[in-house]
Amino acid sequence: MRLQEGTVLTIVRAAVDERSFAAVFSAHHRDAVRLAYLLTSDAAQAEDIVAEAFAKVYVRWKRGEVRDVGAYLRRAVANEANSKLRRRYLERREAGRRRGDDRGVRLIDEQAADRDEVWSALGHLPARQRQAVVLRYYEDLSEAETAEVLGVSVGTVKSQVSRGLARMHTLLEQPTSEPLPGGER
Hints:
The chain is mainly α. The protein has helices at 5-40, 43-62, 69-99, 117-123, 127-138, 143-150, 154-173. The chain folds into 2 domains: 9-107, Rna Polymerase Sigma Factor, Chain: A (Orthogonal Bundle); 110-175, Winged helix-like DNA-binding domain superfamily/Winged helix DNA-binding domain (Arc Repressor Mutant, subunit A). Helix content is 72%, strand content 0%. 25% of the residues are buried.
């Protein structure tokens, strides 16, 4: 059976696309996992988030809809992490209701006590503040880049970072013998 010229061209393009995306994956995977981990404090969940984000990026990339793969991937990771954190919060809240926990849902991870104070304080920020602080200071993005990743205005980034840093400062000023209050939204 002889392949038609159009079919051969399609096969060649697909092979080139696969190699190109493999290079994109290699270039961005480690940074994406680090970002997801900083947002969730869970290594396994970070890997899952990145896998889902790369799958979404790949679909858009093949259609030619992605201009800046790094920025698009960071946004996909941030959105996916936010969804996972929201789901985790709702599951904990429901579990607390089923237990009849009058204090509400305990929002501090059991592992937070084992982390150093900065990571603990970062983990106690609401999701949007945590995302803004992580992108600005751990990913070293500008305010404009952070705004683009989060899909908000530069002013919102400034206020979220300012509030997040102020909250972290308050948490870090507490004596270490007292557990940190707070939690996710």
